[in-house]
Amino acid sequence: MKKIFSNLKPYRWYILLSLLCITGQAMSQLILPTLLADIVNTGIVKGDTGYILSVGGKMLLVALGSGAAAIAASYFSSKSAMGFGKSLRESVFKKVESFSLHEFDSIGAASLITRTTNDVTQLQMVTMIFFRMVLMAPVMAVGSIIMAVVTAPSLSYIFAIVIPIIAAVILTVSQLSLPLFRSMQAKIDTVNRVIRENLTGVRVIRAFNRMHFEKKRFDTANIDLTDVAVRVNRLMAVMMPLVTLIFNITAVAIIWLGSLKINASLLEVGNLMAFIQYAMEIMFSTMMLSIVFVMIPRAAASAERINEVLNMEPEIVDPEQSVNYEDKKGTIEFKDVSFNYPGADEPAVSGISFKAQPGSTTAIIGATGAGKSTILNLIMRFYDVTGGSITIDGVDIRDMSQADLRSMIGYVPQRSVLFTGTITENIKYGKDDAGDEEVRNAAEIAQASEFIDGMKNGYDTVLSEGGLNVSGGQKQRLCIARAIVRNPRIYLFDDSFSALDFKTDANLRIALSRETKNATEIIVAQRVATVMNADQIIVLDDGRIAGIGRHKELYQNCETYRDIVLSQLSEEEIA
Description:
Layout: H1 2-5, H2 12-46, H3 49-97, H4 101-107, H5 109-134, H6 136-151, H7 157-200, H8 202-207, H9 211-263, H10 269-311, E1 332-339, E2 349-356, E3 361-366, H11 372-379, E4 387-392, E5 395-396, H12 402-407, E6 409-412, E7 421-422, H13 423-428, H14 436-445, H15 449-453, E8 462-463, H16 472-484, E9 490-494, H17 502-515, E10 520-525, H18 528-531, E11 536-541, E12 544-549, H19 551-557, H20 559-568, H21 571-574
Parallel strand pairs: 3-10, 3-11, 6-9, 9-10
Antiparallel strand pairs: 1-2, 1-4, 4-5, 7-8, 11-12
Helix pairs in contact: 2-3, 2-6, 2-10, 3-5, 5-7, 5-10, 6-10, 7-9, 7-10, 9-10, 14-16, 19-20
């Protein structure tokens, strides 16, 4: 838990000031019953109005001081708790940003979102209540017990009976509720996952008319969460009435026993009133602790989940001394590379060896699941190879920092990803300081300028979440423009032309060839027409290289490639 609570360090002065204010508030409240006892025992008995006004004035000043301390304590504790929540969210987000794809897959996107939002909020709320109630309650309870013993020693044994009973009730309920709260957070993950899948896959759901099925799936997850929440709240609902019942029985016992003491002239009325107020403070402190104990089990479950994220060490880390060099050309070489996805029985790729030179285009083609996208993921070091090595300009990519490696690469993913914002902002995502001319040039090369200029606001057109207000082909071209504006040494296209018609595809590749004449270009594709003019075609079959060469050579010598060509092109096109 050290990593979690280390986020409180920047706010330690606020915490200290909050403690001082809480102590001041507690001391003020402890003094008031004593002053009241003085008024009753001395002022009223003697009929001394001046004494009553004098002590009453002191009570008023103490009450004002208590109110001011309470306001200040609330302010400083809120600053500490809100700052802690902000800092913790930032720590979780930064940690998640450092994860490789394996860590993302092992926890899941829905669970990571819940941990960054809901779980952090639970800890933030408990922290604020902790500073206000948990720190206040022990001070008030201990101080009230001491003052009660001093005020009426003959009645103080009541606390020795009552306090252990209340503590036993609180601890029992907390122990029973902790596993339920853990389960509740896991159920929230499930609900979030179902909602996320429903929202992102809404088009598929409607296309296959599966709304009823998705509703049932959500209802199942929602009912599971509701059932656990109801069980937890039933358990928690028992605690408050029990504590209140014990509190009321104690009050009756104090008044009854106190009246007997007063009747026997062993206790003064003012002292009994003060004792009752101290008893109230003790009970109120206990009630505050019981409220906190309602929240602590859930916060503990949230803390465990956040701690799991913070303690998870990324598999892919930068070397202690990374290699950096000025003359970056972009020559990529695979040397007998093998890779297994975590938990997989068979390697995704094995025995991969090839070299991609600057100024040339290397195309990778093969059946679905042959390992084409895996090769690009390995180049960007989204995963580390399990055998062999990948070098750029003779330097193993594991000896480079991830930032340096990826700064050399312009990547266009298989699934087009756009962000909420203008078209210009999305293209500039590849290069923050790109000028308007660079943005327009990249769009023209990507064959996107025509549809952008046709929009009402042009490059200032705001794209909705995920780019849902543009077509699939338009999204693909904007993603290509984002990679081009970066002017990288290496271009990686992961089946990035699949949504383009043949004419646009041809025009784009002609314009792209001029832009990338000094860069290394690797294209993953399904269509033969996209790869047949490449300088080097790598044919993958079940994770292994079935052939390397140019189109004509492979068509004659590689059976796997010939089968792909014959499945897509007519004899006239082949000729």
